[in-house]
Structure formats: C-alpha cells, structure tokens
Input
Amino acid sequence: MKVLITGTAGFIGSQLALRLLARGDEVVGIDNLNDYYDVSLKEARLARLHPHAGFTEARIDIEDRPAMEALFAEHKPNKVVNLAAQAGVRYSLENPHSYVESNIVGFMNILEGCRYNGVEHLVYASSSSVYGANTNMPFSIHNNVDHPLSMYAATKKANELMAHTYSHLYDLPTTGLRFFTVYGPWGRPDMALFLFTRKILAGEPIDVFNHGKHRRDFTYIDDIVEGVIRTLDRVAEPNPDWNGKHPDPGTSSAPYRLYNIGNNAPVELMHYIKVLEDCLGKKAEMNMLPLQPGDVPDTYADVDDLVKEVGYKPATSVEDGVARFVEWYRDYYQV
Output
C-alpha cells in the first residue's frame, strides 16, 4: 500500500511513517519544516525515515495548491493520513491567520487531491479541543461540538465538516481522529511534558496553569499510532441506521466516521508533574497561574466506538509513558 502522510517531520507523523514502513508499506511524506519549534528536532525525526527504501520525502506546504496537485498526480497514493497542521491552542490567540492557511486551505487541497486521484480512504487528525465548552464527561463523538474555545479548535471542527461534505458529495471515505493530549519520546517542545522536563532539569520554575487542577486524558504516542493504523486499515462506511431526523454527529449516511483516541483515564496535572519529578529525581519549582484563554479545564475520552468498531483501546499508564519520555530526553539531549 502507498500511503501519503502529511506532517512526517512532526511528532505523530514521523512515528506513524516508521510503523508503516516497518510493515512494508510505501510512504510519501510531506512537511514544510516550519520554525514553529526547533527545526533540528524535525530533521532528526526525518533522519530516522531516510534509510528506508520505501520512503519518499516532499518538502512542500500543504497550502501550496499547484505543488499538492502535482504531488497527488505523480504518486497516486492509495490512502492519505493528514497530520500536518498549525498546532497549539495558545498560539492561535497570537497568530490566527496561520491556522486558516494550514488547517483550512491546506486541508482543502488534501480533500481535492483525494477526490481527483482515487484515494481509497482519508484519515485526518482532529482534536479533543473541538469539545470546547462541553462539560458532559466523558466526551463522546455523539455529542454536539458547536462551541469551540480557540481558533485552533474551530479549524479542527471545520475539518470534520469539510470531510463530511466530500464524503457525501464524492463518496470519499473519511475518518477523523480526535486526539487527546499526546505525549512521549520525540514529542513537541511546546507541550507541557517537554517544557517541564527542560525547566526542572535546568532548575527553572515551571508555569502550572489552572493552579494544577487541569485533568487531561494523556495518551501515549505508541497508542495514538496504533489507533491511526487500525482506523486507516478499516475504511469508513456509511451508517445504515443514520437518520436525518435525529442526526448522529459521529457517523453519517455517507462513508464518514469520527473516533476519539484517548487513554480513557484522566489524570490531574499535579499527579502528572509528580510522576515526572519521580522519573527525574528532582522536585519542580512551580508558578501557579490561572486558567488560560482558550484552555479547557478537563478532557476525558469516551472510546466505546473505537473499541467496538476498530477493536482497540489505548492503555499505557502515565507512569510508564513519562518514564519512557524521560529516558529518551536524557539520551537525545545528553543530560
């Protein structure tokens, strides 16, 4: 199978590409290597892919329409996984235009590429942030999600709507995956675990938002990748029981599906920090700060549909996952 992955220099994209290459798939990887965070880390992730004969790299922007049209026409992928996006909730308050360019315009180019090149299945990253102001826990794909709290969340919700339109109009099977707080080796330096680790080791104070009372459904990277592969292999189909009088947001009469991929076990931020302190053998100095604009207090994934339809449930504990991250971090940065 030939799989086009966008965001192959990214945290999830690079690990997914490795797994697909290991099982014998061809991977065409797209990334623009922007400087939102450390480019050398992105280069190091890509360096792990280059030894594989089945890997082809394309350094382009997904919002570059002519380049995307040419790439789809040349490679004719069987399936597509879109993981390229402008990430980060707080950054979307500072630079909202970058989210529209990458997450909306870029996604439009991917949908068109799939439409005109016979792609069998498009799997794309959504986010737990789409649940926004919802407080009914655990978050279910069958809940309404019309109250986003950040521009990032709004673009991810828009991706789900755009995908449904193409599933309906062009019979393009699409599956959206709502990821819940992904962490682990090779992670993003702008995320809490990376920031906390660097600052604790350097003896600097860490910023703890919402006075540490956040609860997050922290999901280990290997569990996320396994969930992506299993959903990629299970092509989305119409729900024969879907009814327009009582529309189910998570399915459709078109070949369209949504799934949460989360650990289904929320952890309070203070416990997460305690686990990290234990792994580092060092206590954190903390700046206790209020809830930040765009943030939600808690996330908790209902994964019943993922278990029932895909046969998978993430299960890595934060104790195991944080320990593996710290081992990688010490080795990578030689600290």
